[in-house]
Design brief:
This protein is mainly α. Helices cover about 65% and strands about 5% of the residues. It is globular and about 60 Å long. The protein starts with 7 loop residues before the first helix and ends with a helix. Mean pLDDT is about 80; it is low at about 50-65.
Amino acid sequence: IPSDSVNRRILAHLEGYQLVQVCDGFVRMPYRLMHKWMLGVTRRVAAEVSDPIVAFSGASAAEPSTIDCHLVRETLGELEMMLRGRIRAVLETRWGGQADKRIRAAIGEDATAKAEGAIAKSLRFRSEAADEEILDFLYIGDLQSIIIGNEWQEFRRIFSDKKDTERNLQTVSGCRNELQHFRTPSNLELLKAYVAAEEVLGALRSVVD
């Protein structure tokens, strides 16, 4: 991308994270980031980054200003909800009444036991009997196991590239785990998780039932 066509404030922010390189009047970046750039994600990042954004100078740049942690939380929460809904829809379409069995097989015995324990605990606080959705009690890492594992053939039409999907979900899962344990990830971790989550969300939103 010609560097003179890029908003310098956005470019300085991403360059400070070493996510892009500026050389001979052009901006070089990974394909997946360029794809998101074209979809406008980096414009949203720039708009939601705390002011002021400092201009940096190459490798000696200082730490960039902080991306809004609340924004990242909301984005990761939205991703979890959409993943759960899409997994349920895809597996029930393919396997019907065997969908739950396929989910349990994909996540393994330990994750299944944890989810069932959480379901039992939840039901103790209900005044009426209710059927709980096991997917609501799984972590992003568990959802990744379902998508990337033996069920990949059912999800490849949505996500296309298995390695990119796995990498994005791993990035999101690591950040989500930190936030759930009341730890604050670094600015770089937050930004990477946000971009990764938006890429997965973009694939999910493009699905037409």
